[in-house]
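DATA SHEET
Item: assembly model
Revision: 1
Owner: S.N.
Input lines:
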Amino acid sequence: MTMTDQPDTRHPAGDAETRRDCFHVVVLGGGATGALMAAHLLRQSDRVAVTLVEGTYRPGRGIAYSTTDPDHLLNTRADMMTAYPDDPLHFFRWLKARPEGSGMTEQSFVSRCTYGDYLTDQLRDSAGACGDRLRHVQGICERLDDSGRGVVARMADGATIAADLAILATGHAVPRPDPRGLTTGAWEGVDGIDPDGTVVIVGTGLSMVDQVLSLSRAGHRGQIVTVSRRGLLPRPHVPGRNPFPVDAADVPFGAPMSVVTRWARDLARRARAEGKNWRDAIDNIRPHAIALWKAAPLAERARFLRHAVAWWDVHRHRIPPRSAALIDRAVASGQLIHRRGAFLRAEAGEAGSDRAIIRPHGQDATTAIDAARIIDCRGIRNDPERHATPLVAGLLADGKARVDVLRVGLEVTGDCHLIDRDGHPSDRILAIGPVSRAAFWEITAIPDIRVQVAAVAARIAARADAQAAPNPETASKVSASQAPARQA
Ligand SMILES: Cc1cc2nc3c(=O)[nH]c(=O)nc-3n(C[C@H](O)[C@H](O)[C@H](O)COP(=O)(O)OP(=O)(O)OC[C@H]3O[C@@H](n4cnc5c(N)ncnc54)[C@H](O)[C@@H]3O)c2cc1C
């Protein structure tokens, strides 16, 4: 897996002054969310121009789809992964038209790098169809200012991008690299590890599975030890799905979390009793998840995060059967050992090794494991303030944004407008995808993100169409300091 794919240069640079007739939107963050946003905006209105700003990866990739390991599969079947809610089999048709699609069915689990290709293609197709209305700027945005009539995105190299509206699509809060170099991150590669050395993986979620698959592909022979507080592992998908509709009228919106979890367990039991599967129940609760979160009082949301989220995650984010089989084989062979306990810290060990200090579950004493590599797969972090990038830190410091009480995301309105320190929604800054988790919670996977993005795009398109005279000062304009080589 690479962390830094080559920048995509296929998206032609727009002429800085070309689209004065357009409403100019700068999308900050070119992962899956930002790419979907750009594609939907360009599809929905020919009066919108988009500048997509991405600092690290090729557009459309982000942390999920920048992997190059073909064993890193989507955890969602092909027929669930369309970019467009109004065209459910769009991704599947795209897939079938390519060599990778040979032998694939709607139920297949495709590699995530193939899905990244799909998203990149959506951008390229939009760019092709819309002429000069899409521009990709490669670089880090460090600040977002109000210009009085619009916004100004200030880039790390001093360039500025003026626009009518900014959309934060900057993704999850992720941990910074370990400054001591004792641990590597969940989305880094496994190269350079002694193939006979012990590897400690902290966390047992989906990125642990990725790392075990990559180690296996690399021919790793040494022990792999995972450590997690609860010892919960993602459940596997099984072949087939059964209809198990969950009517909104039967969902206990606003009820205490204990009632909601009991209801969910009852549904799973009912599914089994009808000869179906608990997975059918979970998959049919999922379309109601955002409404359940919205309806839950604050104390119940906090209770969910404290007690139920780990349970929900392992049932809801399932792994493909092929990945599950490989994990099972590694456990059966004794190579992979799951240990329940708390990872306390990493220390420098002897002879260049690292040492993981853990406290096994139910014990007071700590244990040390010497390791060739310690991989921190605890993944996505809560608290966007503690893990803020300069851009988000600046918005918080300026009072343009605030973190929700539960510290899961930036506060936004139901239509994704950023809420400032005093509780006022911004007219010019929106936040979508995982950044908006505080308001929607279940807004991290493509099936949810695409619906949010389509709705936001429709509102912006209506605004652009209604705007009789766009502001000439902000029309798709990049400052003179923007070096042409940085625009792709
Ligand atoms: C490992 C993994 C596997 C997943 N598998 C699936 C799956 O199978 N099915 C599914 O539906 N969902 C899956 N998801 C969930 C999902 O698709 C992601 O959560 C989604 O990709 C979120 O995309 P994003 O663009 O919001 O965030 P990110 O992927 O984090 O992208 C944000 C982008 O913004 C850029 N950025 C941030 N700040 C700045 C800045 N200041 N200036 C410039 N650029 C900036 C970053 O470089 C990054 O590229 C998976 C997620 C992960 C992590």
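QC remark: Residues 1-18, 478-488 have pLDDT under 50 and may be disordered.
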